């Protein structure tokens, strides 16, 4: 790789990592920088804004869209056009939101500063653009909602960049986002006419509120809410994991939690995999007659913070037809997914525990209840003890 390109890529990665993991420390550094709008656009916005459209293009052609055994791959030309239009709109929205952020700042006791407003939107959008990588596998597209972490980045950047008082930051961000939603609605017919797709994005139906203490609440479609303190805790968890302060649990210790039998099922095989960074996993195979399933315990390390954030946000999704169903939701603040195919009696059930571990059972069983019982056989308290 060209040394200049390698250095530029490293610079983008380092800035993205810092703004996501330690926004309160990074925003003052960004405020002090003298880069122009053009430099920020070319050196940061364009590469990151391309992640989602490119991932969607690849995912649509390699994996296609569908559920419950049915898959559809759109024509290549249509996918390319959609990617180009999505990319162009993303760039246009940066300039529009920067204009709105600058215009609104004085109305919330802040200061007008066009360059800082552009910085706020450009760097604050990092999480949203990075989450676009999930589009490369359509079935993971739901996790793109983790891009809503950008709302927290805007919130933390409002004071250092636009000088909006802390107690007014939530209201300021709320109005900026409402204006963005209105703009999205206005341009949606144009986008639909070009791409043949209709939709206003994952942020439709979102509400942002504030409380007397100056904190904030984000209420999302389908229910569920999260305050800014909760998001900050998740960010700190991810930071600790990346910096080695919270290393993955030894896979052998997770293996020890696997029961020898679950109901009529006997454990017939077990395996583990782990690394010093990135996570670890223990997996057991259970068999009863012609039925069998795999029970997995995964320490997701830094990704656990993101999964936990999705659970706290109240993410929900549901699909159902004559052959079965797929559901994702939150129970007691924890993300939970389940799917069942009636045709082959195959299903999957998983729960995120402690914003860190995923316990999942998948296979051919008499009913989804047997998979739920398998997941329930792993005591959350035991996992908490392993995490320390």
Sequence-ordered SSE layout with sheet pairings:
Layout: H1 3-21, H2 23-32, H3 37-49, H4 51-62, E1 65-67, E2 70-72, H5 76-104, H6 114-124, H7 126-130, H8 149-162, H9 166-195, E3 207-210, E4 216-219, E5 225-227, H10 228-242, H11 251-255, E6 261-262, E7 265-274, E8 280-288, E9 291-299, H12 302-312, E10 317-321, E11 324-331, E12 334-341, E13 346-353, E14 357-364, H13 368-376, H14 380-387
Antiparallel strand pairs: 1-2, 3-4, 4-5, 6-7, 7-8, 8-9, 9-14, 10-11, 11-12, 12-13, 13-14
Summary of the model, kept short:
The chain has about 400 residues and is an alpha+beta fold.
- Structurally, how many domains make up the residues? 2
What is the count of helical runs? 14
- Spatial order of strands in the largest sheet: 6-7-8-9-14-13-12-11-10
Low-confidence stretches: 66-70, 138-145, 193-228
N- to C-terminal separation?
Answer: 42 Å
Amount of beta strand: 15-25%
- Rg, please? 22 Å
Q: What percentage of residues falls in helices of 4 or more residues? A: 40-55%
Shape: elongated
